């Protein structure tokens, strides 16, 4: 029988939530790495027992942990993230140029075919790759040649937070960087270019259609349609059907098109999910009602999913890496909040129930479907 | 043997007790003591000092015999009582305030 393992990163440790395929009774283990910030943990599609975790601390820096037994035990692996060559500079808040400085790993994206190959998106924004299970890391420096001198940090830091691998073309990757935008490579990371045509940032940029500088919060792809991407931007929910060459707004009837995560149903590539947030200055749900919005038409037309979610006095946020889906039928949808709740839906979002309610603030949620 | 006391998070990471005992060859300095810690516990590389610059991380402090050695250069000899193992070198997570 199938089962589900939900990997939750929080401000104060990692938690592993497990259930059988019915998804109505859950075991909670953790905290793992208690007291440390776990920005992200993620399993290898090629070996579900191989997990990676990004563990960091303002005091003690970055640690990468690896498990080979599905999270029962962990081993610290390589944490040396050194920019290739002379790292150069990027824009700083005061308009001067500022040296690139490694701060932390925001996102880990394992290869779909090799458990020892994994990508890491870091702050200050860069992409690293390991081919030896995380023991050593090498930067793909061509990314910073894609107008990196013009990138500048937003309030959350200049982080590379999203890595999307094209399942049909191992040479093609998409990445997204806060306050810089989306970038694509077609040669396995040697060269990159910005792919932000169609994005409009009226309140954030002097040139609303600038080639770089857009505050992309998250992008998502369904593996069966790798040329179609969905984006939650700072403001605006966007869609591309040409591998990010151009973007169109699909915010439609959302109560707010500000938000952080965007997810795609496991079996319906035109069914997508967002969690609207009131605004960039008020990071909580509109009308204090926690609502996931689902579109079954790839955008434009959205329905509120509210059953089981708090519909008054709710002031939590859902961060960019904190929503995921499982591959069961019906598709399960999961998200975690800054209030420490992890909600699950075993019916594609029609109804929700909390798995746990009182974790530290949730930074990331990933799901493994195990058979 | 010198004694080095680690903060809780690093003890957990290193699977070590409150204090570790280490052999340091030659002159026992702040730098050579920290080198010995990192050789014995490679998972601590980068958590006390920067991996590249080898400079102390901003919110880590080094105390010994009632002295703050945090701002001393790495070739600073450690106090005699630390060298003989009578007193530990304390690696401390700095106060966070609040």
Write a compact overview of the structure shown.
Chain A is mostly beta strands and 371 residues long.
Question: Which key features would you list for this structure?
Answer:
heterodimer, A: 371 residues, mainly beta, Methylamine Dehydrogenase, Chain H, 40% strand, globular, B: 98 residues, alpha+beta, Ubiquitin-like (UB roll), 5-stranded mixed β-sheet, 3 helices, 20% strand
Write structural notes for this entry.
The complex is a heterodimer of chains A (371) and B (98). Chain A has one domain (3-370): Methylamine Dehydrogenase, Chain H (7 Propeller). Chain A is 0% helix and 40% strand. Chain A contains no helices and 30 strands. Chain B contains three helices and five strands, in the order βαβαββαβ. Chain B has helices at 8-14, 30-40, 80-83; strands at residues 2-5, 19-22, 60-64, 67-68, 89-93. Chain B has a five-stranded mixed β-sheet, covered by helices on one side. In chain B, a hairpin with a 2-residue loop joins β3 (60-64) and β4 (67-68). The longest helix of chain B has 11 residues, at 30-40. Chain B is globular. Chain A binds chain B through residues 34-36, 57-63, 76, 79-82, and chain B through 7-10, 12-13, 43, 45-48, 50-52, 57, 59-60, 93-94, 96.
